[in-house]
User: Fold this.
Amino acid sequence: MTLDAPASLPELAEGLAAGTLDLLAYLGELEAHFAAREGEIHAFVPEPGRFDRLRREAETLLHHHPDPAQRPPLFGVPVGVKDIFHVQGFATRAGSALPPDVLAGQEAAAVSRLKAAGALILGKTVTTEFASFAPGPTRNPHHLAHTPGGSSSGSAAALAAGLAPLTLGTQTIGSVARPASFCGVVGTKPTYDRVSRAGVIPVSPFLDHVGWFTLDVAGAHLVASLLCHDWRSEVPRRAPVAGIPEGPYLERATAEGLELFRGACERLKAAGLEIKPVPLFADFEQIEARHQRLFDGEMARTHEAWFRRYENLYRPKTVEILLRGRRVRDEQLVADRAGRAAVRAELEAAMAEHEVDLWVSPSATGPAPLGLDATGDPIMNLPWTQAGVPTVTVPAGRAANGLPFGLQIAGRFGEDEALLAWARPIERELGG
Assistant:
């Protein structure tokens, strides 16, 4: 088990807990890998003495849990945390120039749960400014001239570069699914509010989701079992039926993205998965406009006091959003919040009528674009985020230029267990 041939998160966690993988030796290997790659990827917020701190924390962990049989499920697993989560002992900068003491807050509930499960905090990962659209320095590990996606840029890139076995991110439009697709890793966005958002700087409280990145669906399942409220061990034993959301939504993918997506669907059909075309989102323009108003209007309200005091410290792309959000009326926001239920109801009705269990769609409009001044278009993730349904992105192949492309799988609201169970054979058939 080496960083050149990384293990699945459950295997890594089992090895660290059992002591068959020495924790301090593993951290030493990770430090060497960090030295070799982080300087070109820029996935993490810089931290002097990072690995000295980690070794001290690992020794404390070993002291408190001497018996391998009694060790918690993520014993010694290093976790990267997107820098909009508050973490005790770490400043929160949110990719911004605002004073960290202004942004400080109580440790995020999701972080505390991972620490209680034995995880070590590897550090803060780079985010776009306030999880919006102004990018940080992170590069795509598969091609340094291409974006890793956003806003969870560092979290996805760290996973893809082998710098961390688990990272946390957030999604308000497509900030987990899109970077997972661009970086060729698994990205999980649970059902809305099934994982606590406490201790996370909000963008839009009615759209924000806590999510995570892993190498495979088995790892995603392990994290879900630790973070999701009321996790259930029962999963369906039958094979699922998948639906393709045909119509104006799917037409927003690029020609290359659609070709990659259709090719993945054909491979799944050949492997025996039943896939049906289903007309969906005829009013997609209205769905998109509603989401944009919620994003802009609620972000403007979150930042009202900060922006009044520190406007000159915000980057131009963020200023544009905040000024646009000021123009969204309160009564419009109330109506748009209620409109989320209509999208979910449409999905549920279509699933019942056409007898489908899952939706499959592209995780991004295409592979990662060239350049680092933007993070790509999140439009393929927007309706699933607005509906609050769980999604998981799995690697589904590579474009002609060798960059990864992901398949986005969406399930029913609240049925994360079934989604992740069904995603595992899909991942396997696509070669993940």
The chain has a mean pLDDT of 97. The first helix runs from residue 9 to 18. The beta strands are 78-82, 120-125, 166-171, 186-189, 209-214, 241-246, 274-279, 358-362, 391-398, 404-410.
